Known about the structure:
Blueprint: H1 9-20, E1 24-27, H2 31-36, H3 43-57, E2 63-66, H4 69-72, H5 75-91, E3 97-102, H6 106-116, E4 127-130, H7 140-149, E5 152-158, H8 164-168, H9 178-189, E6 199-203, E7 221-224, H10 235-240, E8 247-251, H11 253-256, H12 262-281
The structure holds orotidine-5'-monophosphate.
Amino acid sequence: xxxxxxxxxxxxxxxxxxxxxxxxxxxxxxxxxxxxxxxxxxxxxxxxxxxxxxxxxxxxxxxxxxxxxxxxxxxxxxxxxxxxxxxxxxxxxxxxxxxxxxxxxxxxxxxxxxxxxxxxxxxxxxxxxxxxxxxxxxxxxxxxxxxxxxxxxxxxxxxxxxxxxxxxxxxxxxxxxxxxxxxxxxxxxxxxxxxxxxxxxxxxxxxxxxxxxxxxxxxxxxxxxxxxxxxxxxxxxxxxxxxxxxxxxxxxxxxxxxxxxxxxxxxxxxxxxxxxxxxxxx
Length: 282
Ligand SMILES: O=C(O)c1cc(=O)[nH]c(=O)n1[C@@H]1O[C@H](COP(=O)(O)O)[C@@H](O)[C@H]1O
């Protein structure tokens, strides 16, 4: 059980980015990372892995992002670990973005929203990732419940993987690309919100620099792809331009490979965070 949140997600995230710098680190217990950390592939080891990341980074980075699939692999034991990780990290002062990439018809979307965004949900995080493939409008229950409970959603717009381009760059009925339509729809959902709305978008740090116009969006832009997927902090300026202050660069493996020590993880995250801060200053 979590307390009702009185301040909206956009405002909480903006404050966290201001105080801690703009960086999201993924909690992705890949089997290869578990082995590199001298752990086996069990729910117990996943707990050890995730809790080490929480200990290292809950007070350091703007937001942490556990990827649900890496926990779901272990069935109910893995979900129990995920529940514990979210609760303890939030207790330790972290904002938690649960990466679930869910999307469904509106009535089922409402059930997903109750599972992850309702204040009484055992798996309630501060925000979740959602997929708009069933239409932006189908996400309305999640956007609505998130707003009521002080939480947020990040809508996939232009993902970091090479396979995303064909579908997301194709032309939508509005005349813009599908990805641009998602960005503009998120902007509409956030209309009037200060300093940032609770509806963010996901746009990979790996995409071309001329693909999207973020100028109407007053919401956060999650930018995964740094490190393991080939994007660099330097490439963020070209991709996001004037929208850079709202960009939340994200990385997982490139930091996690510096475990298993708390100090190793912290030093790696600080290094990326400083590069991002330099970029924002320069
Ligand atoms: O929604 C996401 O988080 C996401 C969207 C996207 O377009 N690309 C992407 O890589 N991600 C997630 O971000 C993380 C990237 O991990 P690394 O490639 O190890 O930095 C993974 O958990 C992905 O599932």
